[in-house]
Amino acid sequence: MEPRSSGVRPMCALTLLLVSVCPLCCRANWMWLGVTPPDDPEQLSCGDPVLSARQRELCRRKPFLLPSVRDGAQLAVSECQNQFRRERWNCSTTREPTAVFGYELTSGTKETAFIYAVMAAGLVHSITRSCSQGNMTVCGCDAHLRGSGGSETASEAWQWGGCSDNIQFGTWFSRKFMEHSVKNMSSLTSYTLSTMNQHNSEAGRQAIERTMSTECRCHGISGSCGVKTCWRSMAPFRRVGSYLKERYEQSIQMSNRSRKKTRKKDQRRPLNKHQLIYLNKSPNYCLEDKRRGIAGTRGRRCNRASSGPDGCNLLCCGRGYNTHVVRNIERCECKFVWCCFVRCRRCESMNDMHTCK
Ligand SMILES: *[C@@H]1O[C@H](CO)[C@@H](O)[C@H](O)[C@H]1NC(C)=O
Ligand SMILES: *[C@@H]1O[C@H](CO)[C@@H](O)[C@H](O)[C@H]1NC(C)=O
Ligand SMILES: *[C@@H]1O[C@H](CO)[C@@H](O)[C@H](O)[C@H]1NC(C)=O
Ligand SMILES: *[C@@H]1O[C@H](CO)[C@@H](O)[C@H](O)[C@H]1NC(C)=O
Predict the structure, then answer these.
(1) With contact defined as beta carbons under 8 Å apart, do 333 and 319 qualify?
(2) Which residues line ligand 4 (CB under 6 A)?
(3) Which of 279, 281, 282, 292 has the most ligand 4 atoms within 8 A of CB, as the residue to mutate?
(4) Which Pfam families match (predicted)?
(5) What tens digit of pLDDT does each residue of 213-252 get?
(6) Which residue has the CA at smallest separation from atom 10 of ligand 3?
(7) Which one of 248, 324, 329, 348 is at 20 to 30 Å from 26 when CA atoms are compared?
(8) Nearest ligand to residue 295 Cα
(9) In Å, what is the CA distance from 104 to each residue of 71, 77, 94?
(10) What is the pTM of this model?
């Protein structure tokens, strides 16, 4: 038996306190599950204050999904930070469960669009993975893919086999879990933050389907492809993240005025469900803005040789940068010594590090 961790989750305690003190003003957000570090799974419960009343109700009906919800949220937060690690806005999270990503959670900008898309996709991905691993009774592999696939010619014939990822259940759950009050998008007259979030969440779910691929394995004699089986597989989440990052870069600004006035424009450029949309222009993220929870780029590490967003010029918004010399100590020249250990030397190197002024 493993000793139980006696550490209390301080953030969780804080959340409980906040919510019990002021239940109305601080509506926590489920995305917070992706920010708190992985801890004792036994502390995860459907009564978690970061869930809304509706989410708690859904959770109580399907409590076995809660670990996947948390895993999906963590996957999404870390992928958001990976995709934006070189940019001025780096997807950093706040210390408050109500804000999670700070200003960006509710600003209605491209960044809000990315957050909702990646979070919705994270849920689909982690629930589907759990289905495919046989951890759930309510879902499993895709049973529709059976028999032979490919072309008729014998040389290219193959059989469906193994476990094809079945994203139906995960997609359904992600929708249900993140549902907003507005249900019928086609009867909208204008975009609001809520409908924008709903659209972008759906685009995130679609991204899982769009990045799926068919993978095959040969089982012939000595590596020949006499028998080939194939299955549908979700892309690694990193690939989904890159796909959504491209969508973010091509995202479209929608007017939040009545749609009637902009109908002509909309018809010229029909919106499809894979596009990310936003309402408000993003700030430049250069300077700290405490009121909006923007960190600014002061102190961020930049790359002097890069002309991309992580280059000192762009990242520091032309303010210039400081150069520090940092001493690195590493294990090096490791040798295997018979038997059985590895002996290394300590190597020291001096490197320049640049940080924004
Ligand atoms: C984002 O940048 C801020 C400084 O502006 C830094 O404190 C924070 O650790 C960074 N977050 C991530 C996730 O890299
Ligand atoms: C499935 O269950 C096994 C054993 O309980 C666990 O190790 C694994 O992490 C689970 N997989 C997912 C995706 O939840
Ligand atoms: C959405 O609203 C439109 C127009 O009001 C209506 O025709 C359509 O049937 C509705 N769809 C759903 C799913 O309720
Ligand atoms: C809608 O647009 C106006 C300007 O046209 C802007 O001031 C307002 O913040 C926008 N509302 C939302 C919810 O984004």
Answers:
(1) no
(2) 108, 192-193, 256, 279-280
(3) 279
(4) wnt
(5) 999 888 877 777 778 888 999 999 999 999 999 999 999 9
(6) 184
(7) 248
(8) 1
(9) 22, 13, 11
(10) 0.81
How confident is the model over 89-119, as pLDDT tens digits? 999 888 777 778 888 888 899 999 999 999 9
Which residue's CA is the nearest one to ligand 1's atom 9? 92
- pLDDT tens sequence across 298-335: 999 999 999 999 999 999 999 999 999 999 899 898 99
Q: Which helix (H) or strand (E) holds 310?
A: none
Instruction: Yes or no: say if 316 and 357 are a contact pair by the CB < 8 Å rule.
Output: yes
Ligand nearest to the CA of 82: 1
133 within ligand 2 shell (Cβ under 6 A): yes
Sheet holding 148-149, edge to edge: 148-149, 158-160, 228-233, 213-218
**What confidence score (pLDDT) does residue 103 get?**
84
Residue with tokens 């409908």: 195
State how far the Cα of 287 lies from the Cα of 13, in Å rounded to an integer. 32
Q: Ligand 2: does its nearest atom lie under 6 Å from the Cβ of 135?
A: yes
Ligand 2 lined by 130 (C-beta under 6 Å): yes
Q: Which CATH superfamily is domain 297-357 in?
A: Wnt (Wingless and Int-1), C-terminal domain (3.30.2460.20)
Q: Where are the alpha helices (DSSP H) in the chain?
A: 10-21, 53-61, 66-83, 110-132, 167-178, 193-210, 237-249, 259-268, 312-315
